Amino acid sequence: MKRIEFLGLPSLLLLAWLMEGCMAVSKTEIREEPTAQVTQATATPIPILQIEPQRIDLNGDWRFRVDPGDEGENEGWYDVAFDDANWSEVMVPHTWGVMPQHADYEGVAWYRRSFTVPAELQGAHLRLQFDAVFYLARVWLNGEYLGQHEGGYTPFEFDVSGIAEPGAENVIAVQMDNLRANDRIPATLSPPWSFDWWNYGGIVRDVHLSATSQVFIDRQRIVAEPDLVGSATITATTTIGNASSFEQSVHVKAAIHDESTGSPVWTSKDDPGLEATITIPAQASREVVLKTTLPSPRLWHFDHPNLYRLVTEIKDETGDSLHHTEETFGIRKIEIKDAHLYLNGEWVRLVGLTRHADSPQHGLAETETIMAADYDDLKRLNMVFSRPVHYPQHEFILDYCDRNGILLIPEVPAWQLTAAQMADPHMLELAQQQLREMIAANFNHPSVWAWSVGNEFDSTSTAGHEYVREMIGLAKSLDPTRPVGFASNRLNIRPQDDATDLADFVLMNQYFGTWVGPKEGLGRALDWIHSTWPDKVVIISEYGFEPSWNRPWGPSTSSLDHDRYYYVTDEELDDPVAADRERQKLIREQLAIMRERDFVGGAIFWCYQDYRTPSGFEMGVVDAQRQHLGAYNVLREEYSPALFGAVTHNVAEFQPGQEVTTEVAIRSRGPIEMEIPAYTLEGYTLHWELLEGKLLLTGGDLEIPTLQPGESWRGSLIWTVPAKGPFTLTLQIARPTGFVCLEYEEGFSQ
Q1: 464 and which of 283, 404, 459, 744 could share a cystine (Cβ 3.0–4.6 Å)?
Q2: Do domains 215-329 and 642-748 have the same CATH topology?
Q3: Residues near 475 by Cβ (< 8 Å), separated by ≥ 6?
């Protein structure tokens, strides 16, 4: 763990949790954590302050300056008295990669800001928390060095009790760099090649100060296991810290609430296993495991993202509240059996896309508005399944997927590492650190169903096998409840040599028809993979089209044949319409090959948007400004789990005032052995509107009965021809979450 230099008790609690990974064995269990050392900042005994937990937002106005000569530390840029008046004013979260004068800057930079801690927090336990800083961050508060953190996509924190000054102005200084190197993750591979996305440096996610009592709930792991016959076992492993200089006895009590109503549905009155009393030594922590059986749970599903909230409170011996937390979770069961993927006991075949955390205005430091707009658009593309991209995601995205129904495979950014890099103990240590931090941050999200330990590294080498063995072993020790894999691009030739043999499932990046060979190779490769691992489900973790794919490496465009390859001519290379034409063709043809192989449980298109990258590749179904391309509509229809059949009317000519009955046929994709996506449609509706221009004349909703894959339904609409035309009838198939799968439109004139 030498790459993380945290000070204070919370970091030791975090590391103890990350290294523990074991689960509950009884209804109430007390576990010891290593005793923390008293730091100089917190050595003086302070009475326990009973406060409501507070989160002080430190986003917003900061000062920024690049430091190309790395002179800032020697010149005291971290010092409280340092004059930063001539620095640039920026809004954090921020990356200098979107500043025109620094867009290509790779080096050291600094951020500073001042803030006031409320005076009433004197004696509180204070933690300075960063959700992500890219890449290597070193932090000072009030001129005192706190420590450093390496890795650009995971959260970290420092205990600043006794360093932050309540009632006074405090100054944070953060030095960071976005330098590329062979021994960093993501890594430089071979000059000038590095990771294939932009090297955005900065404080790229939220910053805040957390204030609690000195006896506090540090974190919770919630495991929810339904038996699929009417109940679920809920196990909450709660780490409680004592930052005071005195032993503390506390009572822990938890209750389960329905997230949609806020009402409690199961408390310690229903099951005393939801409460316990423990004693925590000074400057130490303890784990308590609370376990209960919840009757009649509402299961989480991508079409029915039911959520619960675990409300946990600790009280002192007099009954006064010291701290309470609320943690959202869902109850669902994921299984891999006989080369198929099962959700809550149902065989499902799922689809989605990847998306880079990148926008022209904000780069990696995305706003919630941009993330919500993109993910709403992805839901309109019928995405219910994704390996989001090559690095851990913003908490907002995980929460969005919990609430709107998208299953995720988060990944550490071990991207295209060489055998030599994976054989380096330092690189393994760094990858393991990022895996620990990712799992700790994402553990309670029901949208997270599996973990990925990297992408397209040398997985046929001895070092690659050992890396996968070590990383999967660590992931399993931290989280025994989820499958683990990695995305391989080496499965087209001799898959039996690949480290996928060690994974729980197959993640295959495939670019047949372009980089890896002719179109006809896809079916053969899939069959070979299935014969190698007949019990592993195959997920296509990437497929897509880049119009200049053969220009850097060959073959020559003149040697290509459209029957065997997807490509654009040299004359069409800068024509987005030509590239989009090939992309549409690839989507249709490759999904047809995947559909007829029932061991293919998922297909993830690369990618949603064009993003900034040194390679200049453009592979999105929307451009960087989020304008839809033709492939967007093709992918949306191909990804829809329901399709329109015939739409017929009981009249041939339409006269004003005439009553019309329209019959609409809808089919669920299936049978599941021959279709992807394919799953049961429950709670879907047919929404219809009659429009004169943009004026709504009439409309309504019809409930679609539950349809198994391959089943059909017919519904009837009754409407009156308007007095004047032209007019339009629109039909929409809507999910229970409100997102529209597919639309039909028919225009009429009189």
Answers
A1: 459
A2: yes
A3: 435, 439, 451, 453, 482, 484
Is the CB of residue 732 less than 8 Å from the CB of residue 640?
A: no
Query: What pLDDT score does 31 carry?
Result: 56
Please name the CATH architecture into which domain 52-210 falls. Answer: Sandwich (2.60)
Q: CATH top-level class for 642-748?
A: mainly beta
Q: Which sequence spans correspond to the domains of the chain?
A: 52-210, 215-329, 349-639, 642-748
Residue 317 has which token pair? Answer: 């011996």
Query: For 470, what's the count of Cα atoms within 13 Å in the CB-facing half-sphere?
Result: 18
- The top-level CATH class assigned to 349-639 is alpha beta
d(CA 508, CA 505): 10
Residue 10 to residue 239: CA distance in whole angstroms: 10
Residue 746 φ/ψ, nearest 5 degrees = -135, 130
Residue 403, φ and ψ in degrees, nearest 5: -85, -20
3-state secondary structure of 498: coil
Q: Is the dihedral of CA 467, 470, 472, 475 positive or negative?
A: negative
CA–CA distances in Å: residue 715 to residues 640, 644, 720, 735: 19, 11, 17, 17
Tell me the residue type at 308.
Y
Determine whether domain 215-329 maps to CATH 2.60.40.10. Answer: yes
Report if pTM > 0.90.
yes
Residue type, 79: D
Query: For residue 513, which of 589, 592, 617 has the smallest C-alpha distance?
Result: 589
Q: What is the mean pLDDT of each run of 10 residues along the chain (750 residues)?
A: 36 41 42 40 51 93 99 98 98 98 98 97 96 99 99 98 97 98 93 85 99 97 98 98 95 98 98 97 97 99 99 95 97 99 99 98 98 99 98 98 99 98 98 99 99 98 99 99 99 97 99 97 98 99 97 91 96 94 99 99 98 94 98 99 98 94 98 99 99 95 99 98 93 99 93
